[in-house]
Each structure stands twice: as C-alpha cells, then as structure tokens.
Amino acid sequence: MTPAASAQAAAPAPAASRQQAMQLLLDGIAADMAAYAQLQDLLEQQFDAALRHQRERLEQIAAAVSALTDAMEARRVQRVDCALRLLGPAPSMAQVFTLLKPEPRARLQQQWQELEQRVLECKRLGKRNSDLLVEQYTIMQRVLHGEDQIYEPA
C-alpha cells in the first residue's frame, strides 16, 4: 500500500468527520458556558480587589483571567473551524442550527442565546472594572504629581 493510499484509508469518512465537527462545536459551546460563568466570578473578584487596592490579588486574578480567555479564544477558533467543515465558507451559527433536528436545535439556540448574554455581561463587568482602575490611576497621578493647571492665575 502506498503512503497516499494508507493516508486515505486512515482518514475518517466525511459523515464521521461532520459528526465529530458538530460534537466538537457543541462541546465547545458547553465549555464556554462554564468558562463565562467563571469569568464573571473573576471579574467580580477583580472589582472587589480593586476597591480594596489589593495589588497582589489583582495580579493573581489577571493571570487567571488571561489563562481563561486564552482557552476561550482557542475554543472560538475551533468552533469557526468546525463550522467551516460543516458548512463551507462564510458559515454562521444560524446555519449550524439548521443542521440539527428540532429538539436539539431548540436546545442549542437557547444555549447560544444564554452564551451571548454571558458574553455581554462579562464585557459590561470588564468595562466597569477598567473604568474603576483608570479612575484610581488618575487620582493617584494627581496625588503624586499634582494637578495640571488648566488656567493661569490672573
């Protein structure tokens, strides 16, 4: 058997590959649901640590957030790859939904909507935390270096 023939024989059948792609996509969404819940908790902890000026705790939380978001990004890339394998160029989740039977489709659509809501909530919390940290930094700069005078005394 030639190397090309053995590679073809070892390659999964297209149907199996499509099933695997769909399963990876579904598993990734479920994992992201849990990850966004964890991210939300970390963002709440970050806000608390910022309010208390706990630098070391902020650093630990930042490392945890970074690791979590790296894993989430890897799953997003995998999800896009799976959707491409299932649907070809320019896939969308709406198209992925149509590949499922009604009951699993409804479950996935609901789960996807919940995931979108978690993403939006985490973005809101991230902005809130960023605004607080920027405000604290600005205040510290004023305390340490004085405020720039906007108007010169007459």
Brief write-up:
By secondary structure, the chain is mainly α.
**How can the largest sheet be summarized?**
none
Unreliable spans: 1-13
N-C termini distance = 94 Å
Would you report the number of β strands? Answer: 0
SS-based structural class?
mainly alpha
Q: Radius of gyration, Cα only, in angstroms? A: 24 Å
Helix content: over 70%
Described by the principal axes of the CA atoms, the overall outline is elongated
H/E topology pattern? HHHHH
Report mean pLDDT, rounded to a whole number.
88
Strand content is under 5%
Describe the structure.
The N terminus is likely disordered. 84% of the residues lie in helices and 0% in strands. It contains 5 helices and no strands. It is elongated, with a radius of gyration of 24 Å. The protein starts with a helix and ends in a 9-residue tail after the last helix. It is mostly helical and 154 residues long. The longest helix has 44 residues.
Helices and strands, with pairings:
Layout: H1 3-10, H2 14-51, H3 55-87, H4 93-98, H5 102-145
Which keywords apply here?
154 residues; mainly alpha; 5 helices; elongated
